[in-house]
Amino acid sequence: MVRVGIVGTNFGRLVHLPAFRADARCDVVALAGTDATRTATLANEAGVAKGYGGWEALVDDPDVEAVAIATLPALQPQIAIRALERGKPVFIDKPMAANVAQARAMLTQARRSKKPTMIDFEFLEVPAWKRAKEIVASGALGALRHVAVNWQVENRAVMLRMRNWKTASNDGGGVLGSFISHSFHYLEWLCGPIDALSTRMSGIPAEGGAKERDKERDKERDMETDAAIALQFANGANGTLAMSCASFLGSGHAVELYGEDGTLILHNPTRDYMRGFTLKHARRPAEALVEIPTSDPSDVHGDGRIAPVARLVSRFVDAIESGAGEGTAFDEGYRVQTLIDAARRAHNTGAWVDTRAQTLDAA
Description:
Structural class: alpha/beta
């Protein structure tokens, strides 16, 4: 039995907790938040033995054997590094950090400790996506020509005009950290390395600030909600990635792959990030796309994110039990962080940014 401590009373409590409990090999023994009284109440309500008002006590607790983290990206590095220093495997939310320097420090410590790590990149665990990967890997599309991602939704933060990490870039969030981190990860998983990119971003301006002296201050308070990114892949394909979390009644999330011999489309028109995906495929000389049935028998939870996270948890626990510490999922997180950094530099400079060989060994 692996005794798990969870840092984070929002996503950590609502998603990580039931996902870890879905694996009979896990026992969630501690929960940490920023308010001791509130966290103790939440822990008691959830049937978790210990509730801490700070992450340090949880990480240092000898009863906690593995640490799951779901906090602001800027805070996750120090928690993860401390846990790894104490020999505890780490399961972490994406993006792993607020910048490349933090991500590099995390990856360095993960390699040094040789303890299992996992990052919560959920889309790869959705059955429709797994089937899409099989089709691409089979060569059914032929040489990839073009990739188009169109992700148009309105999230709760924007709906309520809440300026939190999902809409503010200074803590490693904004549209790049909250949403496009997922897209960078699954695009390289499906299509191979991204060699270069160009980016333009925008958002919802802060209210007020009519006076000239307030313009720069208000610019920092703007909600970062939209991005348009042009991509060049190592295999010669081009791509476009359009994302907005400020699209009222948006069209949802679509990933379209166009190859020399076929087409593949994943589309979810619903507001549920994980549920609702259809998969359609056609190969020459077909005249229409055909839907490929997919289902998820393990998706029995109220929140659609729990089932895919639970599959990541199972792999994480497998690695803990087997002692497989040579590899680390933080390599993938570091790669995504370099792409996020490149996208922001591309926006700031208005130029294409080369993203080849962006690994720890090449940095």
